[in-house]
Design a protein that fits this description.
This protein is of the alpha/beta class and 349 residues long. It contains eleven helices and eleven strands.
């Protein structure tokens, strides 16, 4: 059973009285990258909120596959998943720890369904404390690997300090995988390498070391521009085995719409706000409205208790807020395939 956007839209009578300032931006309806689907019925059919957590959809001849993507922070895991399912549903940014919890993104094609388990970047205890990460940050990784049919190890080939080795974190976590789970190596950001022979040397180093996992296959991709993504997706489709589906054909993520919007705004804040500012701001959806034409209008609070951060957010005629708002709108319209307006409200706490 799927909930519609209307049923999950949050109604708050007092949301105007709390706002200090908010900015909205107008979407470019002629964008070449987004095909709008303004029908509310279409959104209701495609939306992903589910009443039963363990729903199994039985139908003879169906195939499925669960894939866990692992890697160090900023390796490009969420960007890769977004490319694989053709939607920007997993939060991405240029800063570390954009993904803070496990999410399942769903790609269905013909009789095959692939569930991509987007996981937080592997991290140390020091970073857990520094970025105030929940313990679920680590548990989600263990759960994903234990459930996976395929584990993809994502290596950032532009990181000269880590690209030549499989980190001990990853090797330790792989102990949780099922015996028949295959492991593949995915070399990411290959478009940024000027000397392509480096890829061959990295492949040799990573596949010949007896202390590293045995890889069933190796892929070279650019999650940012899509190079090599089709080959990887086709490989996974071919690897699927006859099995029940856990999601409907029209589902594309297991997260509630509230969480999708909040995480998208947070990711945009990480991109456009400097240093540790976005890590100290609480993001909270206050109001959500779905119009008759299927368009979405939402109010999101940005709560902050540090005066210098408030000054930055509200200064320069709200330029920083406008940039965050525009970025969030573009990502959400790609995810929901409809027009989106994001209003940001800054609140002192």
């Amino acid at each position: 059973m799927l909930f519609t956007l209307r049923k999950c839209a949050l109604q708050f009578e007092s949301y105007f009285c709390k706002r200090l300032i908010f900015y909205s931006t107008t979407l470019n309806t002629e964008s070449k990258n987004v095909q709008y689907e303004p029908s509310i019925q279409r959104i209701e059919e495609e939306h992903i909120l589910r009443a039963e957590d363990n729903l199994i959809l039985r139908k003879e001849g169906r195939k499925s596959l669960k894939v866990a993507i692992l890697g160090l922070p900023n390796a490009g895991k969420s960007t890769l998943v977004n490319q694989l399912i053709h939607r920007t549903v997993c939060p991405t940014s240029s800063k570390v720890h954009t993904t803070t919890h496990k999410a399942e993104a769903i790609y269905s094609e013909n009789d095959t369904q692939i569930v991509f388990m987007d996981t937080p970047g592997l991290t140390t205890n020091h970073e857990m404390k520094k970025y105030k990460l929940a313990e679920s940050f680590r548990k989600d990784l263990e759960t994903s690997i234990a459930q996976a049919d395929v584990v993809g190890i994502l290596q950032d080939v532009t990181n000269v300090y880590t690209r030549h080795m499989i980190h001990n974190f990853i090797i330790d976590y792989l102990k949780n995988k099922k015996e028949d789970t295959s492991v593949i190596l995915i070399l990411n950001k290959v478009d940024k390498l000027k000397k392509k022979f480096v890829l061959l040397e990295l492949t040799r180093l990573l596949t010949s070391n007896k202390d590293f996992p045995t890889f069933a296959d190796v892929f070279m991709v650019s999650a940012l521009n899509g190079d090599g993504i089709d080959d990887l997706r086709n490989y996974l489709l071919d690897s699927a085995k006859e099995n029940d589906w856990h999601y409907e054909q029209t589902d594309f993520i297991d997260q509630p719409i509230k969480k999708i919007i909040e995480e998208t705004v947070r990711a945009s804040a990480l991109d456009f706000l400097p240093q540790d500012v976005p890590y100290c701001i609480q993001i909270e959806l206050e109001h959500l409205d779905v119009g008759q034409d299927g368009s979405i209008k939402t109010v999101v609070n940005m709560k902050c208790n540090k005066p210098r951060f408030l000054k930055f957010l509200l200064g320069n005629k709200g330029k920083a807020l406008k940039a965050v708002s525009q970025s969030a709108e573009q990502r959400l319209q790609n995810a929901f395939r409809t027009r989106v307006v994001v209003l940001l409200s800054v609140i002192k706490i």
